[in-house]
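Chapter review. Work through the record for Sugar 3,4-ketoisomerase QdtA cupin domain-containing protein before attempting the end-of-chapter questions.
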Amino acid sequence: MKQSSVYDCTMIELDKHHHEKGNITVVENGKTVPFEVKRTYYLYDVPGGESRGGHAHKELSQLIIAASGSFTVTLDDGNVKRTFLLNRPYQGLYIVPGIWRTLDDFSSGSVCLVLASHKYDENDYIRDYDKFIRYKKD
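Structure tokens for Sugar 3,4-ketoisomerase QdtA cupin domain-containing protein:
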């Protein structure tokens, strides 16, 4: 999706079921998530001041959730940047392919849960920003 834009990315409200003994949020393929989840991973114990991400994907879509704590996600399509604060475990940021992403400002104890549309494939990554800009223009 070379022509994708940051405006194709959006916050998704996840099902939140309140109970006096604690809340539960359900995420289901084909219902809650706009793609089939093929891989799940999470980031935690990110040292203060550190950034994660710093890359784009050619084919992979993601749903990023602040399972605990908070952090910011800055999306960049080569022309426009948008920054989202993730701080609620019942909201996820849907990121389409062809978008550069950087995660910053992790609060102490935060957990970033990532649901991905594909299994890990190093060939799907664009890790150099100048190459990303060339990819978007080709």
